[in-house]
Design brief:
By secondary structure, the chain is α/β, with parallel strands linked by helices. The protein has twelve helices and six strands. Helix 2 runs antiparallel to helix 10. The chain binds adenosine-3'-5'-diphosphate. InterPro entries: P-loop_NTPase, Sulfotransferase_dom.
Amino acid sequence: QHPLPEPPSYMEYQGILFPAINIKQESLEAVKMFEIRDDDVVIVTYPKSGTNWMYEVVHKILTGKKENITPVGLEFWPPGKQPSYIQLRETPSPRLMYTHLQHQLAPPGLAAPVNKLSHNILQVKVIVVLRNPKDICVSFYHYCQKHAYLKNPESWEHHNRDFLDGKMVFGGDYFDQVLGWWQMRNDPHFLFVKYEDMKKDFRSSVKTIAAFLEKELTDEHLNLILNSCSLESMRKALTESGTSRNTIVRKGMVGDWKNHFSAEESARFDQKYRERMAGTGLEFDFE
Ligand code: A3P
């Protein structure tokens, strides 16, 4: 273990916290003007919803390749490297990228796509992965503890409160992030996939995603995806990668929140959940 070079510092942009080390105001402003191409595929998630899982699945649907890849996050500017928005500008089509941004910070070509359907023109495909917030809260807690560039939660109790108060890095308030994108649910260029459904029936989830991407899968191709994107295959591949990405795969289950939430925390969470989700038509499995 290396000692931390400096304490993690966050910057705030339009009310949302970002780690100063790999997201800058300049990159967030550039993202707002980022040009989306008609053949782009963009994965949108609140952090810890299964971003990397979906990315591997989509990458493998598009390419048929077995190797794992390092996902490109639109808003990121890794230290010593090019910001993603420049790297992506130079990437030939078709491009695949992900973002945790709330819809109002995302490129306009994504959050408010022009309806070209009537002209039968190809258009960007956006896959939004959704996950129940209790498991996300737990997943985020463990993730923050493992990364030196993120603030180590003072305690589980603090983290749980901060989550409900919308003070998380990258995505800000869970309900704002999710419900902002949920407004696009009737847009045919958006596909909403729940983590819990992928866990329940991975095979049919992959088929649905492939159909949305207009890719026909042979049985062989489908099986390659199912095998190489399983929890254990991804755990093995990421561990062997020798990078910090080995922290991505943890338990990979639905309902781990029960091992962390007190009855009181759960009740408080449920109340906020009911208030914010009422009338939205969005529901989750919590176990
Ligand atoms: P847990 O911490 O609850 O285990 P993200 O990629 O958005 O950071 O999400 C990380 C979460 O997705 C982690 O949740 C991780 O275990 C889970 N995950 C990663 N790969 C997975 C896979 N192949 N199958 C199921 N869950 C997976």
